Amino acid sequence: MNLRLSTNSQFTIHNSQLDITGSKSETNRLLLLQALFPNITLANTSNSDDSEVMAKALKQVAAASGQPQVVDIHHAGTAMRFLTAYFAVTLGASVALTGSQRMTERPIQVLVEALEQLGAKITYEKNAGYPPIKIEGQKITASKVSIPANVSSQYISALLLVAPKLENGIEITLVGEITSVPYIKMTLALLNDLGITTRFEGNTITVAPQKESENKVMTVESDWSSASYFFSIVALADHATIVLNSYKQTSLQGDAALVSIYEQLGVRTEFNGNQMTLTKDVNFVPATQLSFDLNNTPDIAQTIVVTCLGLGIGCHLTGLHTLKIKETDRLEALRVELTKLGAAITVTNDSLTLEPSATLNKEVTIATYNDHRMAMAFAPLAIKVPLHIADAGVVSKSYPDFWKDMESIGFQVAHL
């Protein structure tokens, strides 16, 4: 599905209100915890492809009663990491875990080696260090493990999520600079909500074992990464007010940093209960060049750089080393697509620099690389120039209603 996006020449949004799907990050963590503690009930879960794939895989293996299973998680990187840990510690599970072509190019070795330190039995079916993998679930009694902390926080969260069901819990030693700390803290906070004892001091995390939890309803907060596109829209619009439902001022999600980041891009944010209101500051004058360290929030890098391009300002973004192993090499993809629009941009292995630019090329087709965030991050630029989004259906990975919501606030969305 290819789309053409455009807006009226003077783009204004008056008090539009949106319900955004629950956080994919929180949902996938809670789905795994629900598999470990079945008396948990979940509310406001994500309707994303990734969460549906995760839920289906857990049910498939649970119903198999130890019979060998092939589980295909398609493009869902979070599911690959979390399910690797879950199946590895599920006694009797026999699973071949695979995914899309891109998934077979995304490394899993760091997590596999950590699980092997604990006694897991995992083998590579094709290329060493990459999916597909064969997992034979074991009873795990070892509790101490070390893991590089500068590759992906999902490896660490995967271990933390299964830790309560390990006979002796877990003690993780983190080696190197810790990436995406808010996502680790999110995982620990969800464990704490279930009464599980955790500790995160220096480079060591411990989780105590726990056999059962109380009956509990866990409500998922709406997704901040998905909210980022509306921060961008408000920043680029002439006048705009958008109300987003089910957001907390004190959020577990690291991408809540959007509030302070977009304050520097002309967006005011106010909270009233569980509603978040974004308003364009029409008197705001942005700086010529901005710098942000996104080590804790790499998923909003694409949104920020596109916003800066649309505002005609430059930016220097650092802490982006994990973007090279996402759904695509996001740094290279940004370089290619932003250049099409007329941007002057350079990237390294962990940073991006955009030069200020006053012009944008029209009717450019943005390739999305099987990456939902490429489609959604570029979409707000249609406020400035008409553009085309290739393979626009990719948004279903995290935000299936995105194009419908864009139309509801005034974007003209034409199928090509």
UniProtKB/TrEMBL annotation:
Sequence positions that bind phosphoenolpyruvate: K24, G77, R106, Q154, R330, R373, K397
Record bears the keyword Transit peptide: no
CDD domains the UniProt entry points to: EPSP_synthase
Function: Catalyzes the transfer of the enolpyruvyl moiety of phosphoenolpyruvate (PEP) to the 5-hydroxyl of shikimate-3-phosphate (S3P) to produce enolpyruvyl shikimate-3-phosphate and inorganic phosphate.
Active site positions: D299 (proton acceptor)
NCBIfam families (UniProt xref): aroA
Protein name: 3-phosphoshikimate 1-carboxyvinyltransferase
Recorded GO MF terms: 3-phosphoshikimate 1-carboxyvinyltransferase activity
Pfam assignment, any one: EPSP_synthase
Ranges of residues in domain Enolpyruvate transferase: 16-406
Similarity annotation: Belongs to the EPSP synthase family.
Superkingdom of the organism of origin: Bacteria
Record lineage: Bacteria, Pseudomonadati, Bacteroidota, Flavobacteriia, Flavobacteriales
PROSITE patterns, sorted: EPSP_SYNTHASE_2 (PS00885)
Record key words, sorted: Amino-acid biosynthesis, Aromatic amino acid biosynthesis, Cytoplasm, Transferase
Gene: aroA
Pathway listed: Metabolic intermediate biosynthesis; chorismate biosynthesis; chorismate from D-erythrose 4-phosphate and phosphoenolpyruvate: step 6/7
